[in-house]
Amino acid sequence: MAVIKKFLYVNRKAPHGSIFALESLEVVLIGAAFDQDVALAFIDDGVYQLMRNQDTSGIGTKNFSATYKALGDYDISKIYVEKESLDLRGLSKDNLMPLTWEDEDDDWAEKDSIQVVSSTELAEIIDNQDVIFSF
Known about the structure:
This protein has 135 residues and is an alpha/beta fold.
């Protein structure tokens, strides 16, 4: 019998200016395609990865932020955003793009994927993972 491990991808970097955010997103989608139990955490400047209405035209890079909306299609429903990181940047959940997943146990109802959690709650979540990738 195969043992399913829990994988947490921790995103700490801003979405543009380095390859970290895009690489993380690609690895997450690949892992989910292979039926890994995937969760994501966004802390520090990583919270900017989920900002609504990103516009990269001024910096000349590809805007890949729309790809986050595909996470639900890969059965990724556990997306944690650290409240303290939002607060320090003057942001709230309302500044983040809506990300949803469809709950087959609830007649395919769309449900919110993003959970804003305290640093204490996030520490518990991290402690309960089998594998942690940090980007």
